[in-house]
Amino acid sequence: MKRSVVTLLLVISLLSICSPSLAQAASWEPILDRSLPDPFVYREGDYWYIFGTTPFGYGGAYGFAGKELSAEKMQRFKFRIDVGNPWRHYQVWGFKVYRHTDGTYHGYGAIHWGRYITEVVHFVPKPGQTWQPGKAIAEWKLDKKLVPYRGKRHPVSYDQNLLRDTDGTLYLLYAATVPRPSDDRPGEDKISDVHILARRMLDPGNVDPDFPPRTILRPEGYRSEDRNPNYMQIVEGCNIKRVADKWVLIYSVGDFKLYEGRPSNYKIGLAYSDQLIPPQGKTYQKVLLPDPDNVWQNDGKSEEVGYLLQSQIASWPNYCDRLVRGPGLGNIVQIDGRPWLVFHGYRPDAVKGNGNRREVWKLPLKIEISSERPMQQWIRAVLPETKGNK
Q: Which helix (DSSP H) or strand (DSSP E) does residue 135 occupy?
């Protein structure tokens, strides 16, 4: 009996050594001890910081800080965002932080006033507020509305980010509704799809008026890009990472809500460009795969978008429903010299959700960007080997 136990322990030990993916699957848990949709990963010094969308109203918010991206090491902290109107309920979506070359800190977010009335805004620290190692700025105030709300016939804007090009030029990226050109119905009846737009900035708090909004990624009529059946199409999420000689846009499509009785259609895609902001009329290039069986039920298309992670169709590559449902809002980060994906999604046993209960997860990435390889192999998520994922 004793020999059998020893033998069993030896076999288990060898399995864990030879099959790291099995060990990963056994320890698959969120990296934060509380849900945080729309995660934005920020690194400064020895610390990681994660900001996002919190369910609190009236400017209350929280983030996480720690020296290791794990639930044991990341500690939650509270901070406040003051928009100058203490009596009106509001929520700040997708809060992000940028440190300028002069050492000043800037915050960006979309104020949601309710009923999808949104404004992309610039925040600054309140007087006396400083950033200390492991302690982010605790009090922010509204500085300027960068993309203000102008009424029902104008774009809904959100999912903002500030990026700096290799020559130092700053660009504001955000998602916004754009009327569909093929829809000739008048006014408010016109269908609008969500594009990812770019605006050049004069500095971290001022938009360049001579650079009108430019689409850098748009839906292209593929059924996988439907937010909901027979409704608008959507690409959103404005995280971009320079990888090798490419700019990589990590974007999301679909409906962020999880509905009982049907798979989540929210998923993570990658698109590539040689320039941070492509020339007028050009966009980031999506990964396209042949779809000879038409599993997406497209009309007149022989290809479909290949996603980094998706939990919608089991027969399509990178299906991850047994690990996470509705993956979205990805960040590519370097941990100990290796690339990882940090993103949000529902737990695999979740049945329904309105977005608030999305957890933050991480997966290792395999990156092999080369003109000699097909684009779908350039960046791949390394999924733990669990039944139903491939």
A: none
CA separation (Å) from 44 to 31, 75, 152, 264, 265?
18, 16, 40, 34, 34
Which residues neighbour 222 within 8 Å (Cβ) at sequence distance 6 or greater?
Answer: 296, 298, 301, 304, 305
Residue 136, pLDDT > 80, answer yes
Three-class secondary structure of residue 195 per DSSP:
strand
- CB atoms near residue 203 (< 10 Å): 12
Helices (H), the chain: 2-18, 20-26
Q: Which residues contact 334 (CB under 8 A, 6 or more apart)?
A: 340
Q: How many residues does the chain have?
A: 390
Distance of CA 180 to the CA centre of its chain: 24
Sign of CA dihedral 46, 356, 157, 312: positive
Tokens of 82: 């003051």
Please, what are the domains in the chain? 37-169 (2.115.10.20), 219-390 (no CATH)
Which residue has better confidence, 19 or 239? 239
- Mean pLDDT score, 292-301: 96
* CA 310 and chain centroid, separation: 13
The widest CA-to-CA distance across the chain, in whole angstroms, is: 81
